[in-house]
Amino acid sequence: MSSYKSKRLPRSARRSRKPLQENWIRGPGRGSMIKCTYMKCSYEWEYFGRRKWAQCPACHSVVRVALAKKNLVYHQRAMNSNEFKNE
After folding, report:
1. Is the dihedral of CA 73, 34, 45, 63 positive or negative?
2. Out of 1, 3, 34, 75, which could bridge 68 as a Cys pair, Cβ 3.0 to 4.6 Å?
3. Where are the domains of the chain?
């Protein structure tokens, strides 16, 4: 006998189940602009995938999407600050 006695059924047995939905075809979703992290490439493109990793269409290097987003933002800020310094 188990030391834990309960009058209630386990949570999985008493929870009401949602009806299963049909597997609809998923659209491309919202794209995000990313920039290749390879210094010689630095290609920018819009990524619509749902994975953590993306392949650059120009140099075919594999980059992490989160880092590629940060890379794009960092370079955009650096370019904007350089424009103000040059004026």
Report:
1. positive
2. 34
3. 31-86
Token look-up 């010689």 returns: 40
CA 15 to chain centre: 32
**What is the CA 42 to chain-centroid distance, rounded?**
20
For 28-71, the pLDDT digits (tens) are 678 899 999 998 998 999 998 888 999 999 999 999 999 999 99
Dihedrals phi, psi of 12, to nearest 5 degrees: -65, -30
Residue 34 CB neighbour total at 10 angstroms: 25
Output the pTM of the full model: 0.58
Residue 32, helix vs strand vs coil: strand
In degrees, rounded to 5, the angle at the alpha carbon of residue 29 between the alpha carbons of residues 66 and 47 is 40
Phi and psi at residue 57, to the nearest 5° = -70, -20
Number of other residues whose CB lies within 10 A of the CB of residue 76: 13
